[in-house]
Amino acid sequence: MIILLNIFAWVSIHFFVSYKTSRLTPHQLQKLSAPFQPLQMEAGGGMYRFVRIQKWKKHIPDTGGWFRGGLNKNDIGLFSHQGRVTFLNELNRAELSHWLQMLPAPFFYILNNGIVSWVMFIYGILFNLPLILVQRYNRMRIGQIMVQHAPPEESRPGKTKTPHF
Q1: Which of 30, 28, 6 is nearest to 116 (CA)?
Q2: Residue 123: what pLDDT?
Q3: How far apart are CA 120 and CA 114, in angstroms?
Q4: How many CB atoms lie within 10 A of CB 8?
Q5: Rounded to an integer, what is the distance from CA 141 to the centroid of its chain?
Q6: Residues 95-126, buried b or exposed e (16+ Cβ, 10 A)?
Q7: What count of other Cβ atoms lies within 10 Å of the Cβ of residue 127?
Q8: Which pTM does this prediction carry?
Q9: N or C: which end of the chain has fewer CB within 10 A?
Q10: Per-residue pLDDT tens over the stretch 30-69
Q11: Whole-angstrom Cα distance, residue 15 to residue 21?
Q12: How crowded is the C-beta side of 130, counted as CA atoms within 13 Å?
């Protein structure tokens, strides 16, 4: 019975947090942009090559369109600058969602005893961490594309070509 309660709790957390983050506007996401800045260890993509992210990331489903108003990332249209900005916002939304989904993991110690508490805690981390890595990897790649294909008005002297995360 306790296992069913744990499963229900995790599913509820995943859906609640996903729904709430799907309601954030691009402006609200930009206000939260500090955690989305690239880390030094991500530079050059060596960390992502080490974990072989390109081998397994294609097997992760896109759940962006599960809620009304949500976006499936394949439908955004990365060939336009606006499409790339929208994609970047969706990456930020997804990463925020998965960080927030990990936060309740310690509360499963209150709900459980012994090994079940550890299993639930580890599940919360191991389920979300690969998804966060995928968002960060894709953000690094889309950032490079945005720098290479900046619209003319952004390439004037004095304007930065670095994308806003």
Answers
A1: 6
A2: 93
A3: 11
A4: 10
A5: 14
A6: bbbbbbbbebbeebeeebeeeebeebbeebee
A7: 15
A8: 0.81
A9: N
A10: 888 778 888 888 877 888 888 899 889 888 877 767 766 6
A11: 10
A12: 15
CA–CA separation, 163 and 143 (whole Å) = 6
CA dist 149 and 84 (Å) reads 10
Are the CB atoms for 129 and 118 separated by under 8 Å?
Answer: no
Is pLDDT above 70 for 164?
A: no
Tokens linked to 68: 């009304």
Which two structure tokens, joined as six digits, stand for 95? 């990463």
Q: Which helix (H) or strand (E) holds 144?
A: helix 114-148
User: What are residue 161's phi and psi, to 5 degrees?
Assistant: -100, 0
Sequence-distant (6+) residues with CB within 8 A of 110 are none
Which token pair is 38? 């690239």
Report how far residue 140's alpha carbon sits from residue 142's, in angstroms, rounded to the nearest whole number.
6
pLDDT at 70: 67
